[in-house]
Each structure stands twice: as structure tokens, then as C-alpha cells.
Amino acid sequence: MIILASSSPTRANLLKDAGINFTQISFQFDESKIEKNVKPEIYVQNVVKAKKEQFLKENMGLKNLLFADSCVACGDKILGKAKDEKEAIAMLNLQSGNECSVYTAMIFLGEFELINVSKTTYKFKKFDEHDLNEYIKNNEWQGKAGAMTIENFNKKYIISQHGETSTAMGLNLKILKAFL
């Protein structure tokens, strides 16, 4: 059994769907203090390391801990979680008709520590404006890196994909399952 140290329902669903036995411990983490003027793969790794440090200060003695975080980048511009609808629209407009990558970092603490950063890149066709406005209005973008939901809104606009879908949803299951 592993412990998912995350409040992400998407990560929990990925583990459940993969048949991985886990329990989830939610905790709050403010990633706004993490330096963004670095490459996306460094940024996401720094976030997950900081999450691990914070969690371990508050929860000593636990084993088989899984930490993860994701960021979306268009070029080297990191798109965090949108604070409001205006910011979500701006992030999605950057993705529209463009190539964007999702970087996911995970740390698994078991008998030894596994650290992994994975990347999935998508080429999107131009987003339909009415569809975009409905997505924004339905608030599905909230709490999502880059306001992206690859399993919902963004999915219908994918022209090409390089990498694992689970990475884009917040956890590289292929790597995790190989390790477990």
C-alpha cells in the first residue's frame, strides 16, 4: 500500500484505475513561492521536493509516500494554476493552435527514493471560442496547471501527442508501476 500525499482527485483516480492500492492524505501547499525563472522541468522538480519537505515536517514516520506535481509550459513559459477566469483564458489562448508540454515530477519514498520528471507534449488545433467560453463558465479549469484538462476540454483539440497521457494528468503511471 502506498500513501498519496496530494489533494488531487485526478491523481487518486489514476491510481485507482491502475489498480494500485493506496490511501490519500490531502494537504495544502502554496507553490507561488517557488522560483519560476527556471526551465519547466527544474521548476516542477523544485515544487515536488518542497511538497515532500513540508509534508515530512508534519507527518513523520510514514513510509511508501508518493508526491507529485505538474506544470504546463508553452515554450519556456510556465503556466501555473489560474487565479481567475481572465488568467485561465489567457493560458488557454497560449495553448490554442500551439504546441505545449506538461511536465510531471514525482517522488516515491520507499526503501529508497525514486525521483522522476516526465514530459508529454501536445500540438493543439485552434480552440473554438464558444467551446472555450463554456469550459471557463463551467469552472473545470480551476485547480489545473495551465487551466488544462487533457481528459476533457483539451482532448478534442489534440493534433499530436508525444509522451504518456497519465503524465499529462499528473502522474507517470508507466514509471511508477515499473518501480512498484
Question: What order do the helices and strands come in, and which of them pair?
Answer:
Layout: E1 2-5, H1 9-17, E2 22-25, H2 40-58, E3 65-74, E4 77-79, H3 85-95, E5 99-109, E6 113-124, H4 129-137, E7 158-162, H5 165-168, H6 173-179
Parallel strand pairs: 1-2, 1-3
Antiparallel strand pairs: 3-4, 3-5, 5-6, 6-7
Helix pairs in contact: 3-4
How does this structure look, described?
The protein has helices spanning 9-17, 40-58, 85-95, 129-137, 165-168, 173-179, and strands at residues 2-5, 22-25, 65-74, 77-79, 99-109, 113-124, 158-162. It has 180 residues and is α/β, with parallel strands linked by helices. The longest helix has 19 residues, at 40-58. It is globular and about 50 Å long.
Order of helices and strands: EHEHEEHEEHEHH
Give average pLDDT, whole number.
93
Structural class: alpha/beta
Strand content: 25-35%
Tally of DSSP β-strands: 7
Question: Radius of gyration over alpha carbons?
Answer: 16 Å
List the total number of helices. 6
Function: Nucleoside triphosphate pyrophosphatase. May have a dual role in cell division arrest and in preventing the incorporation of modified nucleotides into cellular nucleic acids.
Keywords: Cytoplasm, Hydrolase, Nucleotide metabolism
GO molecular function: nucleoside triphosphate diphosphatase activity
Subcellular location: Cytoplasm
